[in-house]
Design brief:
Elements (H helix, E strand, L loop, with lengths): L6 E3 L22 H22 L7 H12 L14 E3 L9 H15 L12 H14 L6 H11 L3 H15 L3
Helix pairs in contact: 1-4, 1-5, 1-6
């Protein structure tokens, strides 16, 4: 997995640790494989929450940034913010100088084709939710392990406070001093 999971970038000390391709993160993880594991586990839980609760909103640029912050905010302080350098995980979808223009164009297209608020169905079964999360994570080159899937199933059956405890335990587990 770690071979596929890398960032390509113009080196910038804002996002990466010195002399490293490891993104600066709230967990102070300096090892790429360890960060991959933490990101995969934590974002898969957040993805599951989004699928279970549904995502309501206009899906404009600001809304997409809020979704990004929800998914990655436990790990990265810059989650939900527009990036300032050309950095991407594998395939760069947009150069930094065109992000605002591209998102405005996509926003116009989305609001023309979807003139109402979009809400994902919260009525997925446990298996459907797990499959959706697996598909989403695989699409991001972060396929889930059997342990990840077990964690998702435990998370699904948990109360809101138990879910918060599970996320916090993962954060503590992966945080390096």
């Amino acid at each position: 997995m770690a071979k596929e999971y890398h960032y390509e970038f113009e080196y910038d000390s804002r996002y990466c640790y010195p002399n490293s391709k490891v993104l600066k993160n709230k967990l102070n993880i300096l090892d790429a494989v360890q960060l991959e594991n933490a990101e995969r586990k934590i974002t898969s839980l957040r993805t599951m929450e989004a699928i279970q609760k549904g995502i309501r909103g206009k899906f404009d640029f600001n809304h997409l940034k809020r979704i990004h912050k929800f998914l990655f905010g436990d790990i990265y302080s810059w989650a939900g913010k527009v990036r300032l350098v050309n950095i991407s995980k594998g395939n760069q979808f947009c150069k930094v100088e065109f992000i605002e223009q591209q998102m405005l164009l996509k926003q116009i297209i989305m609001t023309k084709s979807i003139p109402f608020e979009v809400k994902m169905s919260p009525n997925y079964s446990i298996n459907e939710i797990t499959e959706e999360v697996q598909a989403s994570m695989t699409m991001e080159n972060m396929p889930l392990t059997e342990d990840d899937i077990h964690l998702l199933r435990t998370y699904q059956a948990s109360t809101e406070s138990e879910k918060e405890n599970i996320r916090n335990q993962l954060i503590v587990e992966y945080t390096e001093d």
